[in-house]
Amino acid sequence: MTSPPPAPDPVNPQKSRTGLSRIWHATGYSIEGLKAGWGEAAFRQEAKAAIVLLPLSFWLGSDWSETALLAGSVLFVMIVELLNTGIETAIDRIGPEWHDLSKRAKDMGSAAVFLSLTLAGSIWLAALYMHFLAP
Fold first, then answer.
1. What is the pLDDT of residue 8?
2. Active site residues
C-alpha cells in the first residue's frame, strides 16, 4: 500500500495558524495595515479629524446610541478609506497603464469614500442641530 503524497506547504502561513497564534499574527498584520494607511494623505486627514471628533462624540451624544452613531460614522469613514486604498494598491500592482476596468474600480472606491463622508457629515450636522438649535 502506498501512502498519500504529503500535503503541500500553504502559500500563506497565516492559513495554517490557529488560536492565539492566529490572533497574534492577524493583529500584527492589522497594525501594518494602519501604518500603510498612515502613508496616505487622505487617511492621515481623516485620522486627525477622528482625534478631535471621537472625544467630541462623547460630549455631543445625548445617549449611548447617539454617541455610538457619531463615533461609528467617523470610524466608518476611516474603514472605507482603508478599503479604497487597498483597491487602488491592488490595481496599481497590476500595472500603470490606463484601463477602463481599473478606472472603474478606482472610481467606485472613491465614490464609496464620498458616500461615507456624506453619511458622517449628515449624522454630525443632525446631532449639532439637535444639540444647539432644536427647540
1. 63
2. 81
